[in-house]
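User: Round two. Same drill as before: sequence, then structure, for each protein.

Assistant: Same drill it is. First protein:
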Amino acid sequence: MPLREHFHTNSTVLKWEALHGFWPAAIVARLNSIMPREYIAQPRVRLGTAMEIDVGALERESRDLSAGKIESEGGVAVTAWAPAAPAILLDAEFPEPDEYEVNIYSQDEFRLVAAIELVSPSNKDRSENRRTLVNKCESLLKRDVCVTIVDPVTSRTANVYGELLDELGAPQTAVSRSVIYAATCRGLRNGLHWRLESWEHNLTIGSALPTLPIWLSPDLMVPLELEATYEETCRSLRIP
C-alpha cells in the first residue's frame, strides 16, 4: 500500500498527529513480537511545551522587595538594594519540538541499544529544533546506539539526516538531500577507529515504505518493517 500525503491536505481523516501518535505503538508491537526476549521496545511520545510565567505575580514580588525594609538585630531599618534596569541583549523564544520515538533496551542491564526517531514538522521548522535532534542522534551514535530517522514530513524541506552527516563529517548522499526519507545509522568501534555505517532510502508519496535494519548489537539485527507498521496504523485509524 502507498505512503499517503498527511501534510498537504484538508481532510479530517489524514491528520498527521494521529499518525505520529499511533505509529510508534505499531512499531513497538511488531518489534517485540520478533526480537529476542532479552530486548524490549518501548514507545515515547512527548509533545513540546511552552513554559508560562505569571508575569503579574513576578511584578508584585518585585515591588514588595524593592519597597520592603529589612530590620537588623540592632533595630536599624535598611532599604533593600535593587540593580538598574538590564540592557536587553536577546529576546527569543525557546519552543520545545515534539518527540515521537521508539527506544529499544537490553533487558539484562536496561541499556539503550537502538532508537527510532519519527520526524515531526516541529523537528524541521527551525534551525534550533533541527540542531536539537541532530545533537541527540550524534550523542546516541557515539554511545554505540543504533539510530533510525524516519521523515515523512512533506511540508518542510530541511533534511535532519543531512545535517547529522555534516555534524559527523560524513559525505552527503542523494538521500541526505531528499525531503522525505528513512535511514538507519550505526557506529562501529575498533580500537581508536570509529566507522559510521548507514542504510538509507528515499520515500515517495504513492509508493511502499522500505524495511530497514535495526542493530541490537554488532552482530544481531532485526528488520524494521515500516510498510507493515504504517499500514497497521492506517487501518487502526481508518485512514483510507
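Second protein:
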Amino acid sequence: MELIGMLDSPYVRRVAVSLQFLGIPFEHRSISVFRQFEEFRAINPVVKAPTLICDDGTVLMDSTLILDYAQAMASPDRALMPRTLLERQAALRIIGLALAAAEKAVQIIYERNLRPAQKQHEPWVERVTGQLLEACGALESELERKPLSLQPVDQAGVTTAVIWHFTQRMLAEVVEAAAFPALQHLSLQAEQLPEFRAAPHGSGTYRQNG
C-alpha cells in the first residue's frame, strides 16, 4: 500500500504512525497538495491528504476512514480501539476533540499563509482560535481526569499526541504549552517512541526502520 501526503499534516502523520502500530506495511510518498498539485491530482483527482492506495489499486481518503480500513486489516491483538462500549465512547470523545483541534489549527494556518493580509477576517480568526483553545482545554481536562497510556498505545493516544505536536510546531504562540501540561507530557513521551520517530513531522518521508 502507498500513503500519499506530507507528514507536516497531522492527518497524514496519524495514519503513518497508526499503520506502524497496527503492523501494516506501507510505502510513503511525500507529495504536497499545494506545491505538487498536479502530481497529487494524477493519483487522486480530489487532491485530499492523506490518500491511501490499497494493494488492489483502490484509492481511499480521509484519515479516519483510512484507519477504519487499516484496523479491519490488522490482527485483533493489535487493535487500537477499545472493544467495550464505554471504553470506546471515551476514546471517541478524545479523538473527536483532538480532530476538532486539528481542524481549527489548520484553518488558522491557512488563513495566515494562503489569504492576503488585507483580506484576512480577524473576527473569524478570533472565533476559530477560541474553538481551538476550547478543544485543547477539554482534552487537557480529559487527560487530567484519566491520563492516556502509551503502553499499550491506542488511537486516542496516537491522535492526541500527533495533533498536539502539530499545534506546537505550527501555532506555539497561540496554544501555549505551559497552559496544557498533561498534553505536553503525553506528546514528549510519544515523540520518543520508534513509531513516532519513524514518521517525524515535516516534509520528509517515513523511515521504515525508525
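Residues 6 and 30 are 5 Å apart (CA to CA).

User: Perfect.
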